[in-house]
Amino acid sequence: MGKVTMGPQTLMYPMPATLVGANVNNKPNFMTVAWCGIVNSEPPMISVAIRHNRYTLKGIRDKLIFSVNIPSRDLVKETDYCGIASGSKANKVEVCQFKVFYGKLNDAPLIEQCPINLECKVVHILDLGSHSLIVGRIEETYISENCLTDGKPDVNKIEPFVYTRTPSQQYQAFGEVIAKAHSIGAELKVSK
Amino acid sequence: MGKVTMGPQTLMYPMPATLVGANVNNKPNFMTVAWCGIVNSEPPMISVAIRHNRYTLKGIRDKLIFSVNIPSRDLVKETDYCGIASGSKANKVEVCQFKVFYGKLNDAPLIEQCPINLECKVVHILDLGSHSLIVGRIEETYISENCLTDGKPDVNKIEPFVYTRTPSQQYQAFGEVIAKAHSIGAELKVSK
Fold this sequence. Notes:
Chain A has five helices and 14 strands. By secondary structure, the first copy, chain A, is of the alpha+beta class. The longest helix of chain A is centred in the N-terminal third of the chain and has 9 residues, at about 55-65.
């Protein structure tokens, strides 16, 4: 049947590249997280998986508050940097020239330049082995005004991107629209 | 500062469109899951968030085994269909003409047509409100032989796609490469 086994692999498409923020030792810090996604709708929740020794995790565990910021493609260099540098050594906010603002929660630093910002309160922390899985309740959503069309978030203005690991580690833009969702599948529904 | 608040929203880019499989009442069934992602590296783990009343969830809770199948763009119609139909009423495998195979685990149905298949054993189930968050240990990874280049998964052959919800619900291909990861950010590291 033309299948090859590879052993247990963390092989997934697409992966995001988000900037997860927390106040660590009273200073805002951000790290790049690809293992991040929505996990609940009522109430809205998101999860982020972070390696135990990461500096940002200290701040999340301490305050039980964090942010998820979705960068646009013009922030690809800063996004990559926040994944390879550590807040224990560098002031990433300064290096990246992030403009940090705060919303409803005191300890969720948000990046003004990112089109979407989610403020989150920790509701669960699961130790899975190498990583802590943090589940957060989304308390507020911010979007840059210029990324709206008729009051709705517009993917063409947000210009998010995808993190791809194989065959080479790279960031890719969103491409052409293939089909309308919750729609094209109905053709199969009708035919049976 | 040009930001608009939207209240708590499940707003995330990119989201995948995966086909999560389980044997329900001894028959393979698949549902489309956008809230799915890697959560641990050692050992490899993945999470899927599924609304409590979904048919597939019964099979996962019963056998504590499931699969995650990553479709390529030529399966976009079938992928959409598996999100709008229920296995309690339709035989989705038959409608979609999926060729189902089994690997190491007895109860993880895998779709041959999907370039990537992950066999998973449940290690945690978290009730978050509307959804159950299932964390699974990846026991084996299968890839279609024709999606490899020099023995490595090749995104250009896999042709995965992204699920986008706003402003309209649609599926998008992966687009142009913007930058090399773990690389372009180093420019900022050097400059400081």
